[in-house]
Amino acid sequence: MTGTIAPLPDLGWMLRPLTEIPGVRHAVVVSEDGLRLGHMSAANLTGPVAALSVDEAEALSAACAAMTMTGRSTTSLLFGAGARVRQQMVESDHGFVLFTHAGEGAYLGVATDPQADVGLVAQQMQLLVAKIGAHLTSQPRDTAAASS
């Protein structure tokens, strides 16, 4: 058996409208299992993470997958096996991180400053998902293909 790994397209270009919202620092598109599908940082940022590197975006993607798994476990426990997580928010001393379901097998994550209007950010995330959700979908990867 041999496996084929197709390169994932970088979907970072789709995130520009989110990074232009006041207070938004970074945005990432993540597959359900934690692979970075794309990322973008707002222009002219200062502070400890002024622009996400690929390595930082990949680490954020893995953390996003862990958060969504925790959310799925919690909602299944409280609401039954079929309950899906639609949105999550983490608040810290330095801002917010919002996660939303972005299509089959994909999530969208956005990090903001503490002053950001998280209601506006969440609304714009939903609008982006509705507008380009088909591009944000991450189909399960073919782990192995039989060869004859």
List keywords for this structure.
3 helices; 5 strands; alpha+beta; single chain; 5-stranded antiparallel sheet; 148 residues
Describe this protein's structure.
The protein has helices at residues 16-19, 54-79, 118-136, and strands at residues 24-31, 36-41, 87-92, 95-101, 106-112. It has one domain (21-136): 2-Layer Sandwich (Beta-Lactamase). The chain is of the alpha+beta class and 148 residues long. A five-stranded antiparallel β-sheet has the order 2-1-5-4-3, with helices on both faces. It has three helices and five strands, in the order αββαβββα. Helix content is 33%, strand content 23%. The mean pLDDT is 83. It starts with 15 loop residues before the first helix and ends in a 12-residue tail after the last helix. InterPro entries: Mycobact_SerProt_Inhib_Rv3364c, Roadblock/LAMTOR2_dom. It comes from Streptomyces triticagri. This is Roadblock/LC7 domain-containing protein. Pfam families: Robl_LC7 (PF03259). Residues 12-112 form the Roadblock/LAMTOR2 domain.
Considering DSSP H and I runs of 4 or more, what fraction of the residues is helical? 25-40%
How many strands?
5
**In sequence order, what are the helices and strands, one letter per element?**
HEEHEEEH
- Main CATH class: Alpha Beta
InterPro entries: Mycobact_SerProt_Inhib_Rv3364c (IPR053141), Roadblock/LAMTOR2_dom (IPR004942)
Organism: Streptomyces triticagri
Domain Roadblock/LAMTOR2: 12-112
Protein name: Roadblock/LC7 domain-containing protein
